[in-house]
Design goal:
Length: 149
């Protein structure tokens, strides 16, 4: 896990990129054989303002990522973020990214048949889990994720 100083720096830089409150949301990263699923949900599913901002942001970054633009994560986490160089180098179409609205937020499902890109996605998820600390958690593909209020 990243130390508290790094997590504080990441949180501060995150405000430049993410329109929603990191403290009011949870990032959930679930790895799978084809890549993984990134979910962002409001800690209070009834917080319509945060939910709207999460959904808007995930739709925007999906479009950026599909073009190979990972400038947001680079700004927040740094050039040396695990997995990022490989994701940036992927050719258009090598990674499919599907957006879906979920209760309290949204998700992006990353899918690729390239084993090296699956590994890069997993490293990238691990780096985000570490950097976001208490505002992130690892998901489990076999169980549903519901937020309790």
């Amino acid at each position: 896990m990243a130390d508290a100083q790094r997590q504080a720096e990441v949180s501060q830089r995150g405000k430049d990129i993410m329109p929603f409150s990191l403290a009011a949301t949870t990032h959930i990263f679930t790895k799978n054989a084809e890549g993984g699923v990134q979910q962002v949900v409001a800690k209070k599913a009834t917080d319509a303002g945060q939910v709207k901002l999460v959904r808007q942001h995930l739709q925007e970054i999906r479009q950026q990522f599909l073009k190979g633009d990972f400038s947001g994560p680079t700004h927040i986490h740094g050039q040396d973020m695990s997995g990022l160089a490989d994701l940036k180098a992927a050719k258009p179409g090598q990674i499919a990214i599907a957006y879906k609205t979920i209760k309290g937020g949204a998700e992006l499902a990353y899918k690729t048949s390239d084993a090296s890109l699956v590994a890069a996605l997993h490293k990238w998820f691990d780096a985000q889990l570490s950097d976001h600390g208490k505002d992130a958690m690892e998901g489990h593909a076999h169980q549903s994720k519901t937020m309790k209020q």
